[in-house]
Amino acid sequence: NIHKMHLKAVWLNYSSRSVLRSGNECIKANALSCGECIQVGAKCGWCTDTEFLKQGEPTSARCDELESLMKRGCDAARIENPHGGQRILKNKAVTNRKKGAEKLRPEDITQIQPQKLSLNLRSGEPQNIKLRFKRAEDYPIDLYYLMDLSYSMKDDLENVKNLGTSLMKEMSKITSDFRIGFGSFVEKTVMPYISTTPAKLLNPCTGDQNCTSPFSYKNVLKLTSNGHQFNSLVGKQQISGNLDSPEGGFDAIMQVAVCGEHIGWRNVTRLLVFSTDAGFHFAGDGKLGGIVLPNDGRCHLENNMYTMSHYYDYPSIAHLVQKLSENNIQTIFAVTEEFQPVYKELKNLIPKSAVGTLSANSSNVINLIVDAYNVSPWSFFIKISSRRSDHHVSPIACCFLFPMPSQVSFNINITAQGCPKQGKPESIKIKPLGFTEEVEILLNFICECDCHKQGIKNSDMCHNGNGTFECGACRCNKGRVGRQCECRKDEVSTEDLDKNCRKDNGTDICSNNGECVCGTCECKKRDNPEERYSGKFCECDNFNCDRSNNKLCGGHGRCECRVCICDANYTGSACDCSLDTSTCLASNKQICNGRGNCECGTCRCTDPKFQGPTCEICPTCPGVCTEHKSCVQCRAFGTGEKKDTCERDCSYFNLIKVKDRDKLPQPVQAFPLMHCKERDANDCWFYYTYAVNNTEKEVHVVETLECPAGPDIIPIVAGVVTGIVLIGLALLLIWKLLMIIHDRREFAKFEKEKMNAKWDTGENPIYKSAVTTVINPKYEGK
């Protein structure tokens, strides 16, 4: 049953300076040496080429990401980029021992593999180690029973007196190598805790009860495999007493943890059963008895009695946790129901501890111990600590918990962030709590490059020996600055030196793009690490060149001192003009179909009739309408020869439908346009235009067909017309007959009224005749 876990430890942080983690961290670190550069991160490299830096670039420009260095012209062989590694120094296989097999000494049993490793760590580069833990069966167990002997535990003591043989019998089901010991505690032997008068010291109990004198802690029985001896010695113990309810159990636990020789602990599984029916005193409570010195965490047993209870205060919980962990002791708190909440909170603070409910008279103590043991060992803790050169042990990461099967595999990543002072080796230990075995890991830090070893101290290349020439650059001696260490720090910003940083005797120092250091411009860095200033006066840059398609130098060149240096087959101020004529070849292998010129990889057609990428499209040439007829039919009306392959063959133009012929576009000078009239198989006419607008082909088509009347409908129409004419004639005759009848009636009525009329014959008095007779006076009648 293999249980795999992946752990990540990124906690070896010895970096002495802050490094920005956004963008290119290599550039932003301003590393002045190869060693500083490789400590920034695993992506950073250092170019050792002495000719690598351009004029105006600082020494720190040698530190950059590997890809960027090679792009800037540094050969891969000149880039320092060391890597870490690991070696296994001790790798003894885990013990595959079954219960009942040959008995082994505890020191011959191996449960964790490997046992010792050596890692070479480079900052930011994780090293993965694999550990295997296998819990050995029939592993030896030491159990120490620590009991509260205050008066309230009187009935409990009677039940514990037979605990030895019974517990030995029960634990033999788990291991064949089991030892048991016994200790007891009451309270500190100072007056406020145990009695109001000195007379009560001999017998602190009331009435006729016979009690022993109070004590802080007594080691009654050293760990032994003799259960009968346990029963015998425990049977001789007597109850004692004190005044307050909390007991001095923490003093006892501390002594059990640190007095290994007196208790008899072996390097095996160590169990401490703490049995009480009361709470506990802790650090600070000693002031009630005038005790102010903090507990020193050392063994003070004389004749198996704790002799310094009146001198040292109770230990703190954190102090107990430290000592229990250091000595691999697992604690089982066997307490009554009343104090379960208190000790459960204590359990959360003490790794690998357990809490069991003790009955009122401790009759269930054996079951409690067995149950707690069966649960506790299956909770596995890892403690990681670092032992530094000053012999100070400091926990780095501690204590994670998971259910433990019979075998566990770990993948642990260890990453260093920077280097310790002077790059001294360190060591860490990975240790399962409750077990004595551990994995020791020796850490060696890569803090310098290999080229550092070939450095030339006081080199002439560093201005008269004012620095060490290493890894292609000068590392200046103390008090010297400049690329060649040519200046003292107090000379950096003098007026005379600043004159050398002004271009053409101008007012701007380093073109306002840098600082004058030792009379030499060191150009400032941009937020974008890919953008750089350069030049003697920082007057150049690689980001202010012409752009095409929003790309610097059209993406076909590099920007040097604000001028594009184009790649092969490209020209123009923005390298956007291609000299390649392959894109201008027409299907007849002629450049621009012989009807145009190839300019920057694009045809410029000289014949106005022709257009398109290679001057092969002629929208107004004969045959254009016939060529596109079938595709227009299938896309606009779903008919024609290509209706079954329309989607495949006829998607080369954009189709736009209009309602009638008046809505069709008219020819313009911007691009040629052809009006087409075609007839389908049903003698229906459809109208459309075909045009090429730049490279877009457009077809506008009238959405309705113009169809003549068909032969089948003529008889029907003729019959309808004939019927309409006949009906019209009949209606006309009826109307004529009615009019004649009406007229005759009106005329007869008129005649009748005329005959009945009486006419007056008088003359109008103002009437004058319209006839005038004139006689010629000379007329003689001849």
Automatic annotation (TrEMBL):
Residues 25-75 form the PSI domain. One of its GO terms (cellular component) is cell surface. Residues 736-782 form the Integrin beta subunit cytoplasmic domain. Keywords: Calcium, Cell adhesion, Cell junction, Cell membrane, Cell projection, Disulfide bond, EGF-like domain, Glycoprotein, Integrin, Magnesium, Membrane, Metal-binding, Myogenesis, Phosphoprotein, Receptor, Repeat, Signal, Transmembrane, Transmembrane helix. GO terms for molecular function: C-X3-C chemokine binding; collagen binding involved in cell-matrix adhesion; fibronectin binding; integrin binding; laminin binding; metal ion binding; protein kinase binding. Signal peptide: none annotated. InterPro entries: EGF_extracell, EGF_integrin_1, EGF_integrin_2, Integrin_beta_N, Integrin_bsu, Integrin_bsu_cyt_dom, Integrin_bsu_tail, Integrin_bsu_tail_dom_sf. The chain crosses the membrane at residues 713-735. Residues 625-712 form the Integrin beta subunit tail domain. Its main location: membrane. Residues 33-449 form the Integrin beta subunit VWA domain. The keyword Ligase does not apply. It is found in: Cell membrane; Cell projection, Invadopodium membrane; Cell projection, Lamellipodium; Cell projection, Ruffle membrane. This is Integrin beta.
